[in-house]
């Protein structure tokens, strides 16, 4: 389990687990640290995708199904033993949603809450431009410029050519994974009954968040926080997220 999960602060007696799914191109360095910030009632796991961190020498995932199957098989025992919630940012939102779908369909399990950040609803037409990008046609310089514009990576790291190349490669591979995932709401109906909370940066591009309320019979709420795509890296916003997620999880109860 250590290959897949980063848990920097183990809390075996926690009442609930928060499973975090990072954004495209990234590892566990940011979201895993949330484990130190939550109260003793919540234990934080951060998913480590192949091709990065201690899994650097493993091949990248080829499609969403392989990631979903790995997360499900490794975590199923833990997810059955106590309540859990999912948090995903950007690419991680789609992965968390795909894992949640698999858990509900095949095991009758669902999170007590889904926390979605910086991502269109999975069945939105706004996802189509992402799906239609011909990745092989996009030059490394264009990918790098795009990543720079998002301001989610330290400029010191971006000055290192090896790190820059690895970041671009990892982002490309995560985008390939995203392109293999599709969700047809007409075929699925309303898959969830849990509440969904959607977060977005005020200066980020608009996301089709309203569509998320169509995939659950539970409540859906929306919060806009100051900043761009990586608003969640701002300490004040991070503090808000920690407090809000804690309230939602404790309100949901065991």
UniProtKB/TrEMBL annotation:
Signal sequence range: none
Root EC class: hydrolase
Keyword Ubl conjugation: no
Molecular function as annotated in GO: fatty acyl-[ACP] hydrolase activity
GO biological process, one term: medium-chain fatty acid biosynthetic process
Keyword Glycoprotein: no
InterPro entries documented for this protein: AB_hydrolase_fold, TEII, Thioesterase
Annotated Thioesterase domain residues: 17-246
Reactions mediated catalytically: (9Z)-octadecenoyl-[ACP] + H2O = (9Z)-octadecenoate + holo-[ACP] + H(+)
Keywords: Fatty acid biosynthesis, Fatty acid metabolism, Hydrolase, Lipid biosynthesis, Lipid metabolism
Protein name according to UniProt: S-acyl fatty acid synthase thioesterase, medium chain
Lineage, broadest ranks: Eukaryota, Metazoa, Chordata, Craniata, Vertebrata
């Amino acid at each position: 389990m250590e290959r897949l999960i980063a848990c920097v602060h183990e809390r075996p007696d926690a009442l609930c687990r928060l499973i975090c799914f990072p954004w495209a191109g990234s590892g566990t360095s940011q979201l895993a640290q949330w484990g130190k910030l939550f109260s003793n009632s919540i234990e934080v796991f951060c998913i480590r995708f192949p091709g990065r961190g201690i899994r650097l020498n493993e091949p990248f995932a080829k499609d969403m199904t392989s990631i979903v199957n790995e997360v499900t098989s490794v975590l199923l025992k833990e997810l059955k033993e106590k309540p859990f919630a999912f948090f995903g940012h950007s690419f991680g939102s789609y992965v968390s949603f795909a894992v949640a779908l698999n858990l509900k369909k095949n095991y009758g399990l669902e999170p007590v809450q889904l926390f979605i950040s910086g991502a269109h609803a999975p069945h939105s037409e706004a996802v189509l431009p992402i799906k239609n990008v011909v990745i092989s046609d996009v030059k490394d310089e264009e990918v790098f410029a795009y990543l720079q514009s998002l301001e989610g990576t330290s400029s010191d790291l971006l000055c290192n050519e090896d790190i820059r190349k690895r970041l671009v490669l990892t982002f490309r591979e995560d985008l390939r994974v995203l392109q293999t995932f599709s969700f047809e709401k007409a075929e699925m109906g309303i898959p969830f009954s849990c509440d969904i909370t959607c977060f977005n940066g005020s200066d980020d591009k608009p996301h089709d968040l309203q569509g998320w309320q169509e995939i659950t019979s539970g409540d859906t709420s929306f919060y806009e926080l100051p900043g761009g795509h990586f608003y969640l890296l701002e300490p004040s916003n991070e503090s808000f997220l920690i407090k809000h997620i804690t309230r939602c999880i404790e309100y949901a109860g065991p």
